[in-house]
Structure formats: C-alpha cells, structure tokens
Amino acid sequence: MAEGFRGAIFDVDGVLVDSPHEAAWRDVFRELMESDWADVREQTTWTPTAFTAQVYQQVLSGKPRMEGALAALEHFGVPEPETRVDAYAERKQDMVVALIEDGKFSAYPDALRFLLAVKDAGVAIAAASSSRNAGLFLRQIRLDEFASQEGLSYDWIEPGLTLLSAFDVDISGRHFERGKPHPEIFETAAQELGIEPARCFVIEDAESGVQAAKAGSFAALGLARHDDEELLAAAGADIVVSTLDDIDLGAVAEGRLQQRAG
C-alpha cells in the first residue's frame, strides 16, 4: 500500500445502508401538509407526488437534520419556514428512530463486500455521516454473519463483529459548524485517521458529499444508486458507479479509482 490509498471514508445513508430517512422526510412532510399545515398548503408547490427521490437527493441528502429540514421547507415554498422547521425535524426524527428500531432498513451487500476487501488490504476506514442516527444502523449490522453468508474469510473478523466496530474512526453525527458541501467532516475524519486527504478517498451518494470531498482535496467515488450518475459526475466525482462491486481493488491499491475490466 506504499503508493496507494491509505484511507477510505464512507458516508452511511445511501452508501452502506438503505435507510428509511427518505421515507421519513417525505411521509412526515405529507402528514404535516394534510394536518397542522393544511391552511398554508395552497401557498406552496407541494403535492402528494412532488416529494420525489430526486428531491431528496438534491435537497436533503447529506445535510444535518435541521439544515435538511429547512432546505425542504424552502424548496416547496412553505411560508415562515424558520418557525416550522423544529416541528418538521423533530417529527421526522421520531419516525426514523421508530423505523430503525423496527429493523426497517438493510445494508447494501456490495458496500459490505467492498468495505471488507478495502480494510483487509490495509486501508484504514472511517464512517463520516451527517446523520446522528448512523450509529443506530452500524451497530445492528453483523459483519461476521455477512462474511460467513458470503463465503468470505478474513483472519481479523471475530465473532460478534459489527459494522460500527469495524471502523477505525467514526465521526458520524458530530456537530460541525459547516455542513456539506464544506469539507470539514471529511477533513476531520482524515485527521483522526492520521492520513492526509490526498491519500484518502471518499465514498458518497449525494451531490453535496461529492462536492465536499473535492473541496477537501480527496478523491471522490460517486455511488449512483438512484440513476443520478450525471448529477454526481457534474459534482466532480473522480468515478461514478452504480455498485461498488464494479471498483477495481487492484487500482485502489495503486492509488487510483477505476472500474474493473469487463
């Protein structure tokens, strides 16, 4: 690994985990517009079908909770968004925690395979999500069971190993003065790994996350799980793939992000 990447920084929601955040943001917005905020509904651009996956990716994904809530309210032109943002964010948090506790989420197998292979190659790994709920996901995902099911054998995997305990550094959910697309969250992860940004790459599925990586001089691996390859490429991703199974691990060892041949 002398000439290759020494650190990999993973976003969580949308990269490692198919989380219920999008559904919670969308469903709570609808609940409010059809109840508490029904009196201002006609003043907004919101309709029952307007809160799409694209809106989530472009407006909320990758942002801290309060910042994302305010962005959604402003996107749909809700009057006096500053006075409504607390109610929206708090109700969304209650819903997403309930969904997580009910196990209404799943890990992406391609991401777990990639993470295991990268860590086994000697690359230090960090979790860096804006979500304060990231730890709830990570501690419920058993890497030892996944590896066994996949027929993967790594000497360092011990019984009971969770995804959370596999990370060398986890800064998910910390408060940062500047959210993505500012690179502060990724710069902090690299600092705690003890690795300079130029020797790290970031795995992100959101436009703001890719922009944050590039602003901090990291290599950016864009993961297009929502048919948004063009959006991530335009944000500056060094490579965009729809599955991490397509990444050439040999190239990673040489400090390059490229697709596997074929």
Task: Please describe the structure with a list of short key phrases separated by commas or semicolons.
262 residues; alpha/beta; Rossmann fold; DNA polymerase, domain 1; 6-stranded parallel β-sheet; two-stranded antiparallel sheet; globular
Compact summary:
With 262 residues, the protein is an alpha/beta fold. It has helices at 21-33, 53-60, 65-75, 81-101, 109-120, 134-138, 143-150, 163-166, 184-193, 207-215, 229-234, 249-253, and strands spanning 7-10, 17-18, 106-107, 124-127, 169-170, 200-204, 219-223, 239-241.
Can you put this structure into words, describing what you see?
- There is one protein chain.
- The protein is an alpha/beta fold.
- Helix content is about 45%, strand content about 10%.
- The chain is built from twelve helices and eight strands.
- A six-stranded parallel β-sheet has the order 5-4-1-6-7-8, sandwiched between helices. It has a two-stranded antiparallel sheet with strand order 2-3.
- α1 crosses α4 (about 80-100) and α3 (about 65-75) packs across α4 (about 80-100).
- The longest helix has 21 residues, at about 80-100.
- The chain is globular, with a radius of gyration of 19 Å.
- The chain starts with 6 loop residues before the first strand and ends in a 9-residue tail after the last helix.
- The model has no long low-confidence stretch (mean pLDDT about 95).
